[in-house]
Design brief:
This protein is α/β, with parallel strands linked by helices. It folds into two domains: about 210 residues, Rossmann fold (3-Layer(aba) Sandwich), CATH 3.40.50; about 150 residues, Rossmann fold (3-Layer(aba) Sandwich), CATH 3.40.50.2000. It has 18 helices and 16 strands. Strands 3-2-1-4-5-6-7 form a seven-stranded parallel beta sheet, sandwiched between helices. The chain is globular and about 65 Å long. The two termini are about 35 Å apart.
Length: about 375
């Protein structure tokens, strides 16, 4: 099965190589695609005892408290933002290459720790071939994804043959993972609720009510701003999810401010929140903003297809929390937070000015077993 998969992956790469070269001309992929699909400036790791693999910025941030417990480590990622975050933790960070390159690239470690749904067959197979222990942590399967997983259950059963232990987010996840062939499954909750990110900077709480449109995606800002009327005692902060959209969202926010006779500023230029409408166009600021927020409108949930974002980071500060209804990727996390108001985009303006309870985190995850597992292999 592994040999057949490798040949198929090679054929896919040969077929798509030219397209990938053209795609790499885009700023968003200029670093990641050459590194992942052509090994350009993507050398092997320095030898390390533990290899952590995660996808992107959010996953690296969630893992950071565990990553910092181990000095002799390597980190592989998929996205540009994930790479930038990983490099701040260790210089021994790389983009994970496409499957066909793994056998020539992967360095042996004592343990490979894979985060959430990063199930790459050649990665786990080759790690086991080299003698590494392999564990999957924070594992989950959303309602929407489960049917797709089942269609390819034969493939996932092969993958799980090379994974020694799985740490699932919930009992439901455990049952679903078991049907796909996962072995030795332990439920320990969601890592993102066990290690809550703390503010890196402390901002003075404005006297106005602080309303945050957080982790928004294309189409959401326009939909949420439509009909939103800020009072004289309101301050609006917009924090788009993706850096490449900062310019686009700045234009939308500036037009909204001008129409309402409000002041507007980009945080990267002002370095403060003095304006009535503020765009957060710098990475790593969202938790700092959550800490002074009164109302958080959490994006990624008002348009179909994204599946929502982590509510725990905001909920730790107990604001009023409003989310869209499309949260299929984050149901497990939302179940841990009380008093979340779910609404469509056109209902948000009215909700913001109604009497709503502040949210609270009801249950946190326990990662002690994960840490002990890594330490046992590490030492």
């Amino acid at each position: 099965m592994v040999a057949i998969y490798y040949v198929l992956a090679l054929m896919v790469w040969l077929f798509g190589a030219v397209f990938l070269l053209f795609l790499s001309l885009k700023t968003k992929y200029r670093r990641s695609i050459p590194a992942r699909f052509f090994l350009y400036k993507n050398a092997k790791f320095a030898p390390s005892k533990v290899h952590f693999h995660a996808c992107s910025f959010g996953e690296i941030q969630a893992l950071k408290p565990i990553l910092e417990l181990f000095n002799d480590k390597a980190i592989s990622v998929v996205t540009n933002t994930g790479y930038e975050a990983a490099k701040k933790i260790t210089r021994n960070s790389r983009f994970l290459p496409f499957e066909i390159f793994i056998p020539f690239w992967l360095q042996k470690s004592k343990i490979l720790v894979v985060f959430e749904a990063e199930l790459w067959l050649m990665l786990v197979f080759w790690a086991k071939f080299q003698g590494s222990r392999v564990i999957l942590i924070n594992a989950r399967i959303s309602d929407r994804s489960y049917e797709r997983y089942l269609k390819f259950a034969f493939f996932y059963r092969v993958i799980f043959k090379y994974i020694d232990r799985v740490y699932a987010q919930s009992q439901i996840d455990k049952e679903r993972l078991s049907t796909l062939g996962a072995r030795e499954i332990l439920v320990c909750g969601n890592i993102k609720s066990a290690f809550l990110p703390k503010p890196s900077k402390i901002y003075e709480k404005p006297k106005e009510r602080v309303i945050v449109l957080a982790s928004t995606h294309e189409g959401e800002e326009a939909a949420l701003l439509n009909g939103l009327n800020l009072g004289v005692n309101d301050k609006l902060i917009i924090a788009p999810r993706h850096p490449e959209r900062f310019g686009e969202v700045a234009n939308l926010a500036a037009k909204f401010a001008t129409k309402g006779g409000l002041s507007f500023a980009k945080f990267s230029q002002s370095q403060n929140l003095g304006a009535q409408v503020n765009l957060i166009d710098s990475l790593g600021e969202l938790v700092n903003i959550y800490a002074i927020s009164d109302v958080v409108v959490l994006g990624g949930s008002f348009m179909p297809g994204i599946g929502g974002h982590n509510p725990i980071e905001a909920a730790q500060f107990e604001p009023v929390l409003i989310s869209g209804k499309h949260i299929f990727n984050q149901k497990a996390l939302f179940s841990l937070v009380s008093d979340v108001k779910f609404a469509s985009a056109d209902e948000v303006a009215k909700l913001i000015n109604s009497e709503l309870k502040r949210c609270k985190i009801m249950q946190k995850g326990d990662v002690s077993q994960i840490i002990e597992d890594i330490r046992s292999a590490y030492e």
